[in-house]
Design goal:
By secondary structure, the protein is an alpha/beta fold. It has 10 helices and 9 strands. The protein has 2 domains: 162 residues, 3-Layer(aba) Sandwich (Rossmann fold), CATH 3.40.50.620; 83 residues, 2-Layer Sandwich (GMP Synthetase, Chain A, domain 3). Strands 3-2-1-4 form a 4-stranded parallel β-sheet, with helices on both faces. A 3-stranded mixed β-sheet has the order 5-6-7. Strands 8-9 form a two-stranded antiparallel sheet. Strand 5 and strand 6 form a beta hairpin.
């Protein structure tokens, strides 16, 4: 991690009278990027945050909280991705259409270069959103300066984001829905509601409520699935049944598996 290199990279753009907007999802990467820019310059950073049924309300709360702390110029936008039939169909490259809508909306409302919080670890994953970013000429300061997720968490602690430095990675709620299953507002709302309920009675849990083959699979990363009591499982099953109108046999529990709702064929280095 070379913090001075990152600083010089950003200041060079600012000194060349480049206007910039940081696309902040509410995750630790983009929050840290915006906060770092605030820490090295006197400008009030332009921050764009998209709200939609796919974005957890807790993420929006974090963005608003940090916006006040760092005096960002916060722009709440609606990219309207649910009005895009390509996105709603939930294909394997759904994220491309999500980011395409996001960046086009930012460009319609704000001037200058868009920054994203992508890091070098993301380059080793399937990220169609990076293709949309390339098309929109979005810059990735962390990628360009060799920052990993671990580096970003360390930087977050150094610049006043200790509260969120260990925040678990949590992609948008649409990532919980099996590829090919249509994305609807009601389905996203149900997923968010169940995860919120679980967080309430299992504090600090890292959990995913996945919609797979018309069943709900509750996946625990933290605590370990073996630590979840029978009483807790019974309560979760009851809640899921009521919210999704499912019978108990349609509610499953398992360990967290990254990308388990993602279905696609890999041909060489590409998916189809």
């Amino acid at each position: 991690m070379n913090k001075n290199k990152l600083k010089n990279y950003i200041l060079k753009l600012l000194n060349n009278n480049k206007k910039l907007t940081v696309a902040v999802s509410g995750g630790i990467d983009s929050l840290t990027l915006a906060a770092f820019i605030s820490s090295i310059s006197k400008i009030s950073v332009n921050v764009a945050h998209a709200v939609s049924p796919a974005v957890p309300k807790e993420a929006t709360k974090r963005v608003k909280l940090m916006s006040k702390k760092f005096n960002w110029k916060l722009h709440i936008i609606d990219a309207n991705e649910l009005n895009d039939p390509r996105y709603k169909a939930n294909p394997y490259n759904r994220c491309f259409f999500c980011k395409e809508n996001l960046y086009s909306t930012i460009k319609l409302n704000l001037d200058g270069t868009i920054f994203s919080g992508a890091n070098v670890d993301d380059l080793n994953d399937f990220r169609p959103g990076l293709d949309a970013a390339k098309n929109a000429n979005v810059l990735h300061p962390f990628v360009d300066n060799g920052f990993t997720k671990k580096n970003i968490r360390k930087l977050a602690k150094e610049i006043g984001l200790e509260l969120f430095s260990d925040l678990p990675s949590s992609p948008c709620l649409a990532s919980r829905i099996q590829t090919g299953t249509s994305i609807t507002k009601s389905l996203l709302n149900n997923i968010e509601l169940i995860e919120a309920k679980i967080h309430n009675y299992i504090p600090n849990s890292d959990v995913r409520c996945r919609w797979l083959n018309n069943e709900v699979n509750i996946q625990f990363n933290k605590p370990n699935i073996k630590e979840i009591t029978i009483e807790q499982k019974t309560k979760i099953t009851t809640d899921v049944g009521k919210v999704f109108s499912l019978s108990k046999d349609k509610v499953k529990f398992s360990e967290y598996t990254k990308g388990s709702a993602f279905i696609a064929k890999k041909i060489g280095n590409k998916y189809a």
